[in-house]
Amino acid sequence: xxxxxxxxxxxxxxxxxxxxxxxxxxxxxxxxxxxxxxxxxxxxxxxxxxxxxxxxxxxxxxxxxxxxxxxxxxxxxxxxxxxxxxxxxxxxxxxxxxxxxxxxxxxxxxxxxxxxxxxxxxxxxxxxxxxxxxxxxxxxxxxxxxxxxxxxxxxxxxxxxxxxxx
Length: 166
What we know:
Elements: H1 15-33, E1 37-46, E2 49-57, H2 64-81, E3 88-93, H3 104-109, E4 114-123, E5 126-136, E6 140-145, E7 148-153, E8 157-162
């Protein structure tokens, strides 16, 4: 997690968290207008560039027109609000097939689905686990792996995403 020293916004949130939260608030009425849902918003630095990414979704999948409409409307609002002093690149896209499951609402929608979990350190000699998502709570993720339930601590998990079946 990237935290910029010296700047914390609302209630101790980092600059990144503040920008993501504010962008999600501004994006909500735009998403509603165009019939899409907000999957995630992230503000990240890659190389020397900052990116503000909005991931949108809908039951039958988003298309390029959805992304263009939301991007144009969000860009106009961001220009008017002007709360991000850094230069950044705005991207609006679908979360993709191998989507990362970051929030409880993502996990809720993915119960019963096959997921891949990567941990920071090896557990029983492995850092990657694959299985059906059976349950989750504030502290744990439970998957069924080869007929056996495995409970992983969320604080030990680096990444959770849907597996790709081809």
